[in-house]
Amino acid sequence: MRTWKVWEQQLARGISFLAAYSVIFILLFLLFVVFSKGLKALSWETIFSLPKGGYYFGGEGGILNAIVGSFYLSVGATILAVIIGVPAALFINVQLIRLKRTQNTIRYLLDALWGIPSIVYGAFGFTLMLLLGLHASLLAGIITVALLITPILVRAFDEVLKTIPVELQEASFSLGSTKTETALRVIFKQGLAGFITALLLAFGRGIGDAASVLFTAGYTDNIPVTLDEPVATLPLSIFFQLSSPIEEVRERAYAAAVVLTFFILLISVSARFLSKRYAKNIIK
Amino acid sequence: MITYPVFSYQKAKRMVNHQEKQTPIIEIKGLNVRTREGEILKNINLKIPRNKIVVLLGPSGCGKTTLLKSLNRLTDLHKELQVSGEVLIDGVDILKVSRDLPAMRQKMGLLSQRPFPLPVSIYRNVAYGLKLKGIRNKDLIAHSVETNLKRVGLWDEVKNRLNSPANSLSIGQQQRLCLARGLAVKPAIILADEPTSALDPISTRIIENLFKELKEHYTIILVTHVLRQAVRLADHVVFMYYGDIIEQGHPDDILKHPKTEVLKKYLVDGN
């Protein structure tokens, strides 16, 4: 009996060990493939210059259009998502505190929205674009990506707000706060670290998504000056270059992938750093 | 010749004050709180006298906390609670107030079982309520922060780190900070829901001593199920059992000469 228990314990430990390290291995392997292939093609010119004529057929230039375009699009979409998402998450947790069923229904709907594939958002954004009389542009891309990341932002922030003890709200109310004052001055501050994580999570999803912008943002070799102009993005840049029959262009796709991966890692590290910094006031 | 009694202004003021002190600060009439599962408070009728420590005593789940939270309508946060009856605070029924609810709540400072300082600095915790009251004068706020931290005996411990997060304080200090924060908005009543249950004996004694000092100016309603604490602090004891008030009166009468079997049993084995 005792031997079996020891064996069982060791088996469980072995499986956990394997599972944990296989995740780390996959991540490291992915980074190795992307970086080993991409670093060869990566140069200052790739990062800091716009594509010149025939770039996608092996011509000179870089992917600055896609780097800046991705940044514009993700920042714009994240701002829009924050404007909608933060009041929504606070509303669910403060104003609807007594209406558990309504809270749960909204959460269920947001989870469903989170699960919808991004290509569907792309198709929806395209329909919306036609309805609004827009053409493929930075604005249309921003709206579509904002639609994609808003549920992510709301639910991620909502999960943080859910953990805030009701007694903290009671403390605020008993000092004479209204619901809005409690939401903004107490609940938001208590959830600030989590909000930053949610924000960067949503930003990371926005910058890395290709399908939602496929029909809506267009593609251009230039950096857009107005919201009305089409915009290039890193995921689409990778997609177009990887589809090329020319070996050199395919390698450049990996260079673009290195840049995108670097941004995602940077976002992830920043999220950890910032959330730790803003967690100092949190009441546990 | 008819002679009229001559009243001086001071004498008249003393009479008004005396009269005011005789009227209860809180009057609860027919208060019922229920959920779908059943009644939590059953037809509660209670008068809370001014400047006294009123102890709500009873076993867990008897409705003490619900009664306390009904007084400043924190029951509003729980939809499952249906509240009816009257809770008159200085003659105004708080259950019927809508727009003035935040101002009514400022009349009652709250201390919960575990201290919940706000997620800001020590200074801003005490200043929070003042800012809500619309006070913007920085000197006035600084003065109030200092006065109230001194009042709860915390000033010397924190005066050099007022901008540190409130969560950097010990639990006992946090509870005193919460008390200072509540006192800063100048309430008339302090609602204390087992405020020493998470504290060590030294911090407990500090809070208890503070209550004894504060009752000069405030009415304190204290929820506890620690009999010895009730003996040490109470001016008036209300014993509750399953949502009912079973007995109430002076602690000597209630705790030394209980009339009901339920209270006798509670005093013997605390259940």
Automatic annotation (TrEMBL), chain A:
A Pfam family this chain is assigned to: BPD_transp_1
Main localization of the protein described in the UniProt heading: membrane
Subcellular location: Cell membrane
SUPFAM superfamilies (UniProt xref): MetI-like
One GO CC term, this protein: plasma membrane
Single GO term (MF): phosphate transmembrane transporter activity
InterPro entries given in the database record: MetI-like, MetI-like_sf, Phosphate_PstA, Phosphate_transprt_permease
Domain ABC transmembrane type-1: 67-271
One GO BP: phosphate ion transmembrane transport
Residue stretches spanning the membrane: 12-35, 71-96, 108-132, 138-157, 186-204, 253-274
Similarity comment: family membership: Belongs to the binding-protein-dependent transport system permease family. CysTW subfamily.
NCBIfam families: 3a0107s02c
Name of the protein this chain belongs to: Phosphate transport system permease protein PstA
Organism listed in the record: Prolixibacter denitrificans
UniProtKB/TrEMBL annotation, chain B:
Superkingdom to which the source organism belongs: Bacteria
CDD domains: ABC_PstB_phosphate_transporter (cd03260)
UniProt GO cellular component terms: membrane
Keywords: ATP-binding, Nucleotide-binding, Phosphate transport, Transport
Ranges where the ABC transporter domain occurs: 26-267
A Pfam family matched in the record: ABC_tran
Keyword Coiled coil among record annotations: no
A molecular function GO annotation: phosphate transmembrane transporter activity
InterPro entries (alphabetical): AAA+_ATPase (IPR003593), ABC_transporter-like_ATP-bd (IPR003439), P-loop_NTPase (IPR027417), PstB-like (IPR005670)
Biological process terms in GO annotation: phosphate ion transmembrane transport
Name the UniProt record assigns to this protein: Phosphate import ATP-binding protein PstB
